[in-house]
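@channel sequence for tomorrow's demo:
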Amino acid sequence: MGKGKMDDAAAERISKARGRNDDFARRAAIAAHNNKEERAKKSDPKGGGTGEYPHSSKQGGGSGQSK
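structure tokens (generated this afternoon):
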């Protein structure tokens, strides 16, 4: 089997074969969910944080004035 991202169909097949309470089946479901969210973020037209500068907001800089 080739390398690939876990999808809902694969997670469902694993769960059906091994049982819903199996640790591997649970991890497969979590991986499928995470991969689905990751794909949604990448296709977000509003720029869901995948821009060139992921931390473009100024953090901890203050106003630049010293007291």
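heads up for whoever presents: The chain has a mean pLDDT of 76.
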